[in-house]
Design brief:
Elements (H helix, E strand, L loop, with lengths): L5 E3 L5 E3 L4 E3 L6 E7 L2 E4 H10 L7 E4 L12 E4 L1 H15 L6
Bound molecules: zinc ion.
Amino acid sequence: MSNIKLGTLNNGCTYCLSHKVHIRGDGRRAYYRIRIKGKRYYLHRYLWEQKFGEIPKGKILMHTCDNVLCVNIDHLIPGTHKENMADMKSKGRTRNGYSKK
Ligand SMILES: [Zn+2]
């Protein structure tokens, strides 16, 4: 098993000290990637599955803290891509002062 070193920020977000960030083709999303027994995983998904079991098919892990590099599994909840978009949109609205609350 790979040696994974984690660190925690003041806001509770966890980041990875031992692995490099993999930047996807679109250049916008970056996640830590690890390789275990020749298989590649995204670190946040791997850690989540270690604790909660397999992520349901078609679901992605959403960051409740909005920090895509965060690998704190307490900040991750499974959701659909659609929910994630809606979530981002609602947060964007909040940022612009159009909070629904
Ligand atoms: Zn976080």
